[in-house]
């Protein structure tokens, strides 16, 4: 059976209350398919190289720093990145 035909059959089998969720998910997949970055990542080859000692050491150091509490919460980092983006936009606006 062709995959699209099977999808049509599966949709026909859905209970009415499940159709909006299926529709939403299919729209999500369609949007991903149109995003060039997502497509490039999906099509990229799997990194099958062995981890180097340098990479293992970097991971150990990062885990140790986290254990010591040496990290920034995501909310704080996001706020700073947003602030910097606003500053950059303002600088660009003033320059033009």
Characterise this structure.
The chain is built from five helices and no strands. It is mainly alpha-helical. Among the domains are: 3-34, no CATH class; 72-96. The longest helix has 22 residues, at 74-95. The radius of gyration is 23 Å and the shape is extended.
Q: In brief, what are we looking at here?
A:
The chain has 96 residues and is mostly helical. The chain has helices spanning 3-13, 19-34, 36-43, 53-67, 74-95.
SSE arrangement:
Layout: H1 3-13, H2 19-34, H3 36-43, H4 53-67, H5 74-95
Strand content: under 5%
Mean pLDDT: 92
Approximate helicity band: over 70%
Per the principal axes of the C-alpha atoms, what is the gross shape? extended
Helix and strand element order: HHHHH
Which residue ranges are poorly predicted, with pLDDT under 50 across at least 5 consecutive positions? none
Rg, Cα atoms, Å: 23 Å
Largest sheet: none
Helix vs. strand class: mainly alpha
Amino- and carboxy-terminal Cα gap: 58 Å
Number of helices: 5
Q: Please give the number of β-strands.
A: 0
